[in-house]
Design brief:
The chain has 130 residues and is of the alpha+beta class. The protein has three helices and six strands; from the N terminus they run αβαβββαββ. Helix 1 packs across helix 2. The longest helix is centred in the first third of the chain and has 19 residues. The chain is elongated and about 55 Å long. The two termini are 32 Å apart.
Length: 130
């Protein structure tokens, strides 16, 4: 579970920033987690919640995860679009209606030839401290 080591690295970064700014405690942190980052959000949050207990200045810190929708470029028409993440239920319903359970479609030309744009980030965006 590499999410635990990612959470550990983020905690080290947060603690260094808190020390640099002479903060006694960190109240919240906001992390951008890209849809193609390969990080399981629930595992990352679990790792953070487990590890923060070892640091008194983080004991009550709230982790806010921002998880934007994936963005794609259509290889047919070149359009760039953000498509909401479909749940397994939505995929199943689409399969019944359209006969295709996995493919996202370009809203411009309905092509399924979509290439991901970015979305691999794991960025510490904001820290609130006192």
């Amino acid at each position: 579970m590499h999410e635990m080591s990612l959470a550990q690295g983020m905690i080290a970064q947060v603690l260094a920033l808190a020390q640099q700014h002479q903060a006694e405690r960190v109240t919240s942190i906001t992390v951008l987690l890209g849809p193609f980052s390969g990080v399981v959000a629930e595992s990352f949050a679990f790792g953070f919640e487990t590890l923060k207990k070892e640091e008194p200045s983080l004991a009550e810190t709230i982790l806010l995860l921002e998880r934007p929708n994936p963005c794609y470029r259509c290889l047919e028409c070149g359009a760039e679009t953000s498509l909401p993440k479909a749940s397994p239920l939505q995929h199943a319903l689409r399969a019944q209606v359209e006969g295709d359970s996995t493919a996202e479609r370009c809203p411009g030309c309905a092509s399924t030839l979509l290439s991901p744009l970015g979305g691999t980030e794991l960025i510490l965006q904001q820290i609130r401290m006192e």
